[in-house]
């Protein structure tokens, strides 16, 4: 029986539950095992404790043999490879951003000075570019807690990853789903990362059956942009990719944004090598002043 390590939140267990079901469908037995993290215990803001606390404990548990499989949101993993682990990317969910607003409103319909919850600099910068009048408020907690701030009148709207809403059955709560070129998502958003110990050939063979090569390569191109810009996953950097099945061509788009919404740098590249695509985008962005823009954020 494979032990799948996961955080205890509803979103994390739902994501890990999908992986469990896929592993069972692939012919192995699996069950979930909850791993506590510092972020679960102290509920401190991600900006202070760092998103890495949510992945480090899972990786430590995996390396120590306390679980056999670890499931992460791919966008939260460090971009540098960890040679201890074998990583698989299954079929990706919708990578777009979603607005959940009171009274069914979309972004244009929100009143002047509307209170919108998000703590992600990437989202903050792009929202302010579209609506400089918005009152952006910090947001913390699970999906239910975040959406509850609208119901209790604390906020007029929140912005969340559409994939998380879909995985938890809340997609109908979205009052607007932004096109990827309107509010660009985080690199690898919507993708799960399934890790196992690299030296465990039997388990590697099991999880390899979950691989989606297209989704892996598209997410990799996006994460190369983040890596080459030397930016963390909370930096105002965004990327998304599309795949043309008839030609096998990946087209990736990257963006870097001023936190106040006053400036953005965009770049696009296409090809079949995800690493080369991501490097071309990052080189273009750096040539256009991305390092200076990130330094100001």
Give me the number of helical elements: 11
- Contiguous uncertain segments of 5+ residues: 42-50
Total E-strand runs = 13
Alpha-carbon distance between the two ends: 46 Å
Helix content: 25-40%
- Overall mean pLDDT stands at 93
Largest sheet: 5 strands, mixed
As a whole number of angstroms, the C-alpha radius of gyration is 19 Å
Give the amount of beta strand, in percent. 15-25%
Structural class: alpha/beta
The shape, in one word, is globular
Strand order of the largest sheet: 2-1-3-10-4
Order of helices and strands: EHEHHHEEEEHEHEHEEHHEEEHH
Keywords: Porphyrin biosynthesis, Transferase
EC number: 2.5.1.61
GO molecular function, one term: hydroxymethylbilane synthase activity
Enzyme class: transferase
Structure description:
Monomer. It catalyses: 4 porphobilinogen + H2O = hydroxymethylbilane + 4 NH4(+). Its EC number is 2.5.1.61. This protein is of the alpha/beta class and about 300 residues long. Helix 9 packs parallel to helix 10 (about 275-285). It has eleven helices and 13 strands. The strands form three sheets. Strands 2-1-3-10-4 form a five-stranded mixed β-sheet, sandwiched between helices. Strand 6 (about 115), helix 5 and strand 7 form a beta-alpha-beta unit. Helices cover about 35% and strands about 25% of the residues. It is globular and about 55 Å long. Residues about 40-50 have low confidence and may be disordered.
